[in-house]
Amino acid sequence: MEIKDKIDRNKLPQHVAVIMDGNGRWAKKKGNQRIFGHQNGVKAVRETVEAAAELGIKFLTLYAFSTENWKRPQNEVNALMHLLISTLNSEVKTLQENNVRLLAIGDLESLPANVHHQLRNTIDLTSTNSGLSLVLALSYSGRWELVHAVKNIIQDANEGKITPDKLNENTLYQYMQSSFMPYPELLIRTSGEYRISNFLLWQIAYTELYFTPILWPDFRKENFFEAILDFQKRERRFGKTSDQLVNETSTVPNNNS
Ligand code: IPE
Ligand code: IPE
Ligand code: MG
């Protein structure tokens, strides 16, 4: 039995988030420059997108470039920006074939104009696709997203559109850039690092975390399916006891409920 066939299609996460890490180490192990690792990470992105689309997962968020990644050497940042443009260009076909809609979160205005332009183009081209939503986190950090949300709340408060008594977890989330998607049920991080690195901080309060030592350029469909299988074995208690869960339906508390 193939690993994919072991997955229970009735218990799929709606949203999977991935911290794609380990490109630099992968390249170094092969005696190459870090950018060689980034270039080889594109295949892993394609495999992951296809795997998520095949399963019928609704949202896949990929952490592609963090707010802090701007601090890397200029030549690496430039190379990553170029790679982004060429990948968006070359992968449009794969996105269309798999009925994938591209979206992006992060401080997109801070991206170089040509990257921003190519991104907008690809988002527009795929906007009517109705399958998987692929969300690229670019110049993104969880703290940045929260600050951005608070600024919008203050703005609305100044205009009398919101008062403190109306603010709760759901209304706060509505002010966040990623509020168009449910919170991720599963977060995968490759490369054997056990940290969040400023990814979806608010959203992952009850997310299941999955860490694998595989370096991102080596990540394949089977590895994604393995993570989904592992997720399906977990008991998500949301603060309750195991016994309480027995008589409950499989509906889980999320921002949608
Ligand atoms: C992840 O790989 C890609 C980005 C952060 C853009 P890294 O470049 O962080 O690779 P390592 O962690 O140094 O091996
Ligand atoms: C996290 O990886 C960011 C992305 C994958 C885009 P990093 O490699 O930047 O994280 P740290 O610095 O090891 O925490
Ligand atoms: Mg890294």
Distance between the termini: 35 Å
CATH topology: Undecaprenyl pyrophosphate synthetase
Number of helices: 8
What would you call the shape?
A: globular
Rg = 19 Å
According to CATH, the homologous superfamily is: Decaprenyl diphosphate synthase-like
Describe this structure in words.
This protein has 257 residues and is α/β, with parallel strands linked by helices. It has a single domain, classed as Decaprenyl diphosphate synthase-like (Undecaprenyl pyrophosphate synthetase). The protein is 41% helix and 13% strand. It has eight helices and six strands, in the order E-H-H-E-H-E-H-E-H-H-E-E-H-H. It has a six-stranded parallel β-sheet, sandwiched between helices. Strand 3, helix 4 and strand 4 (133-140) form a beta-alpha-beta unit. Helix 1 (23-29) crosses helix 2 (34-55). The longest helix has 24 residues, at 74-97. The radius of gyration is 19 Å and the shape is globular. The chain starts with 14 loop residues before the first strand and ends in an 11-residue tail after the last helix. The model has no long low-confidence stretch (mean pLDDT 96). One 3-methylbut-3-enyl trihydrogen diphosphate is lined by residues 20-25, 65, 69, 80, 191, 216.
Keywords:
single chain; 257 residues; alpha/beta; Undecaprenyl pyrophosphate synthetase; six-stranded parallel sheet; 8 helices; 6 strands; binds 3-methylbut-3-enyl trihydrogen diphosphate; binds magnesium ion
Topology:
Blueprint: E1 15-19, H1 23-29, H2 34-55, E2 59-66, H3 74-97, E3 101-105, H4 113-125, E4 133-140, H5 142-158, H6 169-174, E5 186-189, E6 208-211, H7 221-232, H8 242-246
Parallel strand pairs: 1-2, 1-5, 2-4, 3-4, 5-6
The structure holds 3-methylbut-3-enyl trihydrogen diphosphate (2 copies) and magnesium ion.
